[in-house]
Amino acid sequence: MPKTIALVEDDLALRENYISALSKQGYEVAAYDTRPQAERAFSQKLPDLAIIDIGLQGEIDGGFALCQQLRGLSKTLPIIFFTARDNDYDTICGLRMGADDYLTKDISLPHLLARIAALFRRNDLLGEPQLAADIVQNGKLTMDAKRMTVAWDGIPVELTVTEFWMLHAIAKYAGHVKSRQQLMDESKMVVDDTTITSHIKRVRKKFVELDPSFDRIETVYGMGYRWKSQ
Fold first, then answer.
1. Domains of the chain, with CATH numbers?
2. pLDDT at 192
3. Which of 71, 82, 100, 219 is deepest in the core (most CB within 10 A)?
């Protein structure tokens, strides 16, 4: 049975493009252009995954409200923000409201499809037993590669899929410098150096919010990043 994706996007041309692209991948797509329209549909039946724009038909933050409603209906349904708004404030707001990933509309279609597949894979694996090979343990850090979960001193750290794999790339080989290219390879994305820097900054900030003394992620100027062993 095909996975169902809800696409909430008020730009007609974009909406039709992504309906076509996702349908070609075998997904069943239900598209909505307003928050009330999507909310009515979700109250009747939930999709397997939701892709939501933030600004919707005159509601500058309509997507945020929709995300909160969806998260109230399901704690595990994968939610992706897909928006033109590329700033730390909106990214952090979106993730705090329960989204699993935050992507900007300048990314490639293969990147979006990779994110969708990763979230479906994570949900499919949630009920499976943990394997030692999937766990990265380094001091207070625990990462589960199958479930894409992270904890610091036992407290969950909410990371996007991109942030998770970037962190995994450096934490798995503590003490080894990972170049920006290696981080892109690990997270299956192609972006500029500034975007990678922004991702790393957000990851650091999330750990510091839990532990003000956090200093495990080190920038090695001109080379990349590494996880400092304790």
1. 4-125 (3.40.50.2300), 132-227 (1.10.10.10)
2. 62
3. 100
